[in-house]
Amino acid sequence: MPIPAPNLYPPFNILRLSHIEFGVTDLAASRAFYVDTLGLQVTDEDDETIYLRAMEERGHHCLILKKKAQASVDYLAYKVFSEDELDKAHDWFAAQGHDVAWVTRPYQGRTLRTHDCFGAPMEFYFKMDRLAPIHQQYALYKGVKPLRIDHFNCFVPDVDKAVAFYNRIGFRVTEYTEDEETGRLWAAWTHRKGGVHDIAFTNGLGPRVHHTAFWVPTPLNIIDLLDLMATTGYVGNIERGPGRHGISNAFFLYILDPDGHRIEIYCSDYQTVDPDLEAIKWDLKDPQRQTLWGAPAPRSWFEHGSLFDGVEPVAATLKATPIVAP
Ligand SMILES: [Fe+2]
Fold first, then answer.
1. Quick one: 107 and 192 in the same domain?
2. CATH number of the domain encompassing residue 76
3. From the CA of 94, how far away is ligand 1's center (Å)?
4. In a domain, 206, yes or no
5. Are both 70 and 148 inside the same structural domain?
6. Taking every annotated instance into account, which residue ranges of this chain make up the domain VOC (predicted)?
7. DSSP E strand stretches across the chain
8. What's the gap in Å between 254 CA and the centre of ligand 1?
9. What is the per-residue pLDDT across 194-205, written as a single tens digit (0 to 9) for each?
10. Which of 19, 60, 27 shows the shortest CA–CA distance to 41?
11. pLDDT, tens digit, for every residue of 28-55?
């Protein structure tokens, strides 16, 4: 199925991805991973919840860890351009027959909760508490020196359907993978903020979250993190990489948190703000698609993901197989 033309005047204006809430089973173990190892900054915490931000971020949180009996993802959140855009989003989702509710979230103004075309929970807000800048407080930099949240990647049972839906709310495709045999999409990368993606979609049992990515200053920070993880009890949490992606041209590493939520450490993709930017097409069987240097991903990378709380995933309709490491 062809990529839809960019929708430059969507029904409401999403600025960028903002944050994600993970259900975690051991808050202390998650804190050791995200704070002591990765270097995210705690902005508030109690016995039930930890709020975190990365070094460049002025908003109160980009990651919320909530103590739960089972690991889960509670929602993916996006910032819109103004309060008016929130009302437009509410009315648009309601008109499409999606559930809509105004919910209360600490450190945020009005927050709209709804869901995408697969039932994956989405939240939208404009106002979040603003914090003092810390990006030049170099004494605070630790771990991999995370600068900002960069993107989500989700398994979905129908990538063509995902691209069609997210196109309607203004997400523009930058790169995509096509299955040559059927002509259907196997994966797609879509953005609002002018990078390669705010959210990407991968063919598979879904909806589930495949990973959440944080931007770091340089590939050397990734090497330093690997040395740290390898010598502090986290060698089993290193899943794939480091490497250079074919798609996005970014330097990457994939790691798993103590509950199995996958985190990507990511840097150096490219600018995509031109409204007439041509999307780049990849063949599913191109060995340089996943990793420019040719190394394929392990099977776990194509199968393991995080469940959304209360959302039952369904099997993918496309059965095409990517290149998997032996
Ligand atoms: Fe990614």
1. no
2. 3.10.180.10
3. 30
4. yes
5. no
6. 16-127, 148-268
7. 14-24, 41-45, 49-53, 63-67, 72-80, 101-103, 111-115, 121-125, 148-156, 172-178, 185-191, 199-203, 208-215, 238-244, 251-256, 262-267, 280-283, 306-307
8. 9
9. 999 999 999 999
10. 60
11. 999 999 999 999 999 999 999 999 999 9
